[in-house]
Amino acid sequence: MRHFIILAAVSVMGSITGTAAFAGFTFGPVINELAPSGPRSSVAITVRNPTDQKVPVMLYIVHREPKPDGSEEYKETPEIDDLFQIYPSQLILNANDLRTVRVSWIGQPKVTSELSFRLIAEELPFSMEPESSDMRTRAKILIATKYVGSVYITPPEAKPELQIIAKMADPEFKDQQGKIQLEITNTGTKHVIPRKLVLKIAGASGAPIELRADEFKKLAGDNVLAGKMRRHFLTAPAQLPPGPYKVTFELPEEK
Q: What burial letters (b/e) apply to 198-226, b meaning 16+ CB within 10 Å?
């Protein structure tokens, strides 16, 4: 478990690009798929300090628990140390230094469905500068950079499987009344980002209306984890007849 005090932080979410770069250090790759056993059960992470100052960094892993609206809870629990080994998990990068950190899965060698975690690389907010010789009181704001990457433990033959329903917004979502509530559930065993999703929504009568994921930035950027559901609210096209709605969809494989 981690033991340090955070004074302030700037958080950067890992994107599809291979390396995250911001402020005091760079970190990558930010997205990693590991096998539950064998040579692919570990990965080398590169941490680089492009500055002329020393940078203390800590890496750790937390459970990933997304909510239907896309927000996430990161659960740091003691058993995470029985699932992963990070070496070294704490390091001080000298000026223009580059270090390699090995992240290894040491949990069960067989899993039936993909497991999702967050890999966090955090600059510790400690001043590495020597004290002033005149001993005058100094005030310094320390900004700690934090990158949030992804680690998946993916069993062989894992694949996503989507189920999608559309309906008028449930009464509990008062600020979404009159919109279409779209629920995308991944009943498969691997996460999926439906960038090329094409939906066809039909009302009680009339021809279906085609909607493409690239027309809705939030929908196209979804990461639907195995066994999880994402919820979106869409403004109903004027030509779409009233519900109940029937949804069909296509999700071409990405090359």
A: ebebbbeeeebbebebeebeebeebbbbb
Kindly report, residue by residue over 136-161, the tens digit of the pLDDT: 444 444 557 888 999 999 999 999 99
- Phi/psi of residue 40, each to 5°? -90, 10
Q: Are 146 and 12 in contact (CB under 8 A)?
A: yes
Structural contact between residues 204 and 243, judged by C-beta atoms closer than 8 angstroms? yes
Asked if 43 contacts 49 with a C-beta cutoff of 8 angstroms, the reply is no
Q: Looking at the predicted structure, is the pLDDT value of residue 40 above 50?
A: yes
Amino acid of residue 110: K
- Provide the residue type at 191 as one letter: H
Contact yes or no for 27/58 (Cβ under 8 A): no
Lowest mean pLDDT among 63-72, 100-109, 181-190, 229-238: 229-238
Number of Cα atoms under 13 Å in the Cβ half of residue 153: 25
pLDDT in tens, 109-140: 999 999 999 999 998 876 555 555 444 444 44
Q: Residue 60 in contact with residue 76, Cβ under 8 Å?
A: yes
Domains and CATH numbers, the chain: 9-153 (2.60.40.10), 162-250 (2.60.40)
